[in-house]
Design brief:
22% of the residues lie in helices and 31% in strands. The chain is an alpha+beta fold. Strands 2, 3, 6, 7 and 8 form a 5-stranded antiparallel beta sheet that branches. Helix 2 runs antiparallel to helix 3 (57-70), helix 5 packs antiparallel against helix 6 and helix 6 (111-122) packs parallel to helix 8 (145-163).
Length: 683
């Protein structure tokens, strides 16, 4: 996700039908460590529901799981765990818990079928989505948003399947400015011809004294900037400073052509934490800094909401976000949930009247749908409008769309296709002047954080390309492993990995990508209950040859809890626990396994030969195991995922040892996976 999706991409509002919005404050701050949930299942459930109603979904999920540890058949906790997982974008877990809820009670709540179908859509399990959504449509008799939405999603599943067969128009690349905390809503700032900067929204916790926005258990968002060296290379990112960034959620920048005026949104202000407003800041070239932001009062929307359980009503700001200026600076488009729109979130526009902005106008039903339409941008020529929507037939979630024409005469919008769009959320495009490339945001897997910034460029008409395809297979049985995730990386000249694209397999377990000539690549495969594995391949030496096919199968080893896996070459000198230089390479491999499989926790065990007393060998093996764990922690692995144990001479491979080689093999280190429940994505 993020930076902060709740405030800026408004995904939680997008799926408002999944939860009844409370009147509580929208944002919570937390500087404290996690606490355990104690008491009866009923007591913990009460706490979990309070957290859920306060939209503290990451924390609520922990509480619901605590209930399920004591009461595995608790239907409400199972459904709510699924919903929390969905909101914090842990989609595999969401599917698993929705499936469990149906197993517990297939008639418990018909909307669970809809929610599971939506989750399958994100996971690109289109056949499962169709089956589940059709079941929901059969059960649901109301003529409401659910009925309209399920019709749209069924059509979308068919659309996504058909689009698989088309040649891709765009090439995409994840950018190295992304972090694990998430980045989104990129915009280019140019104050002179020699320098350009990418300005973006991020929830890096160093921005706000490590305060946490608890809807996602991530930091409050700020505006950062990074100098553009070329389209995909950037300088060190820097916070835009306290003049611009507040203690609230700041983001969604747009600039005048001369780079002297910026508009952006500030969200979740005040005690209640409702809404977002658009602010203006003017750059002072003499002081070389941005001035204090001022709210654009003429664009500030207000609405009445219930703010407590007694029904008290207050006026609060609407969600006015995603401002984007036309190239001449005379028109501003933005997203709002104010009254008078076509759906929940609509695109609005306003024109500059010399000293203020005009009253905002809705862009109308040609663009806006009954659902959510966001992140607008007008092309440099003014004849193309780009935007994102989840209210049209598409791949799933938000897709990027375009329409040609002009104000009042826009053509029917068209989906911009894959891989620009995915089954995840794709939005906030910032297009080049010639419309041939764009920076955009996506929460698809394969990059760094929840939300990441990507760069995309239109393909050449006659590129030198290969089609690479293969199967994801079980290493032991050689049978297909369905519903796997395959990520394509380019290996650059320094050996660094550049994420390019992601493919979710269906029941066939087959994946496919288009790759260029004269480059090195890697595919990384992963699936639930399997260890990730990678395969490298190269197209070098085939320059000028078009439409060549490569077959690259990926074999995965199934995770077996508590099965010992010996680390090759982790051996020790007699009576020592220091790591040999040759051992570091094997521990680096183990580190990579842990990074690629963020949902596993391991125990490292070390063994000695039979020389020496049992108590001495026990202590020696403990020191050896601790040394290996120390190496992993020093190289970025979360210590909560690591345990160690010294076996001493209790499990000898050779006894009695006949030579030095057998003694060496007894002096070994191995690991076993003891848990696959660690939160995915953390190292």
């Amino acid at each position: 996700m993020v930076a902060n999706r709740f405030a800026f991409s408004t995904i939680l509002m997008v799926l408002a039908f999944l939860v009844s919005w409370p009147a509580d404050s929208f944002g919570q701050k937390n500087k404290n460590a996690k606490t355990e949930f104690k008491g009866s299942p009923e007591k913990i459930l009460e706490v979990a529901n309070q957290l859920y109603n306060a939209q503290r979904f990451a924390r609520a999920k922990e509480a619901y799981i605590a209930v399920l540890m004591k009461d595995p058949e608790n239907y409400i906790s199972t459904v709510r765990t699924a919903k929390c997982s969905y909101f914090i974008q842990e989609y595999d877990e969401a599917a698993r818990y929705f499936e469990s809820a149906i197993e517990i009670d297939k008639d418990g709540n018909d909307t669970v079928y809809f929610e599971l179908g939506m989750t399958y859509r994100v996971l690109d399990r289109q056949n499962d989505a169709l089956e589940t959504l059709m079941e929901f449509r059969k059960r649901w008799k109301e003529k409401d948003d659910y009925a309209r939405r399920v019709k749209l999603e069924i059509e979308g599943s068919k659309f996504a399947e058909a689009e698989r067969k088309k040649d891709p128009v765009w090439r995409t690349r994840c950018l190295d400015i992304n972090t694990a905390m998430g980045e989104n809503f990129p915009a280019v700032l140019s104050q002179n011809e020699d320098e350009k900067y990418l300005v973006f929204t991020t929830s890096r916790t160093e921005s706000k004294n490590n305060e946490i926005f608890e809807s996602y258990n991530e930091g409050y968002s700020d505006l950062w900037m990074s100098k553009i060296e070329d389209d995909t290379t950037f300088g060190v990112a820097e916070n835009m400073g306290k003049k611009i960034n507040t203690k609230y959620n700041d983001g969604n920048p747009t600039f005048t052509a001369d780079g002297q005026t910026m508009y952006f949104s500030i969200c979740n202000q005040g005690k209640l934490g409702y809404g977002c407003s658009i602010y203006r800041s003017v750059y002072d070239p003499r002081k070389k800094r941005w001035g204090k932001p001022r709210v654009v009062e003429e664009l500030r929307g207000m609405k009445e909401v219930v703010v407590d359980s007694r029904g008290k009503i207050k006026k609060v700001p609407t969600y006015d976000v995603h401002p984007m200026l036309s190239s001449d600076g005379n028109t501003m488009f933005f997203t709002s949930d104010r009254e008078g729109g076509e759906g929940r979130l609509d695109i609005w526009y306003t024109t500059w009247e010399g000293d203020k902005w005009s009253e905002a106008q809705n862009l109308g039903g040609r663009i806006n749908t009954p659902f959510d339409d966001i992140s607008p941008m007008l092309s440099d020529g003014g004849n193309i409008l780009y935007f994102a929507s989840n209210g049209r037939v598409g791949f799933g979630g938000f897709d990027l769309y375009m329409t040609e024409g002009g104000m009042g005469s826009w053509a029917e919008p068209s989906n911009m296709g894959a891989p620009l769009n995915s089954t995840y959320d794709d939005f906030a495009g910032f297009w080049s002047k010639d419309d041939s490339s764009t920076y955009f945001t996506s929460n698809r897997p394969g990059c760094t954080g929840r939300d990441d910034i990507y760069w995309a460029k239109k393909r050449e008409e006659d590129p030198c390309e290969f089609a690479v395809h293969g199967l994801v297979l079980d290493q032991t049985s050689q049978l297909p492993v369905p519903f796997a995730t395959v990520i394509l990386f380019e290996i650059d000249f320094e050996g660094d990995l550049i994420p390019l694209d992601t493919f979710r397999t269906d029941q066939s377990a087959e994946y496919n990508f288009e790759v260029e000539c004269e480059k090195d690549y890697k595919v990384l495969g992963n699936a639930p209950e399997y260890l990730a594995n990678e395969v490298e391949f190269s197209t070098k030496g085939a320059k000028g040859v078009n439409d060549i096919e490569l077959n690259v199968d990926i074999k995965l080893e199934q995770i077996i809890i508590n099965k010992a896996i010996v680390l090759n070459n982790i051996y020790y000198d007699f009576d020592k626990w220091d790591l040999r230089e040759a051992s570091v390479e094997e521990l680096e491999r183990l580190k990579l396994i842990l990074v690629e499989n963020g949902n596993i926790s391991i125990q490292l065990g070390s063994h000695t030969d039979s020389n020496g007393s049992e108590p001495y060998n026990k202590k020696l093996s403990e020191n050896r195991a601790k040394e290996a764990v120390k190496f992993l922690i020093e190289n970025g692995i979360n210590p909560d995922r690591l345990k160690w144990y010294g076996f001493g001479e209790s499990e000898l491979i050779f006894f009695p040892e006949k030579n030095d080689e057998e003694e060496q093999k007894n002096r070994r280190t191995e690991f076993q996976i003891y848990s696959i429940d660690f939160p995915a994505g953390e190292n």
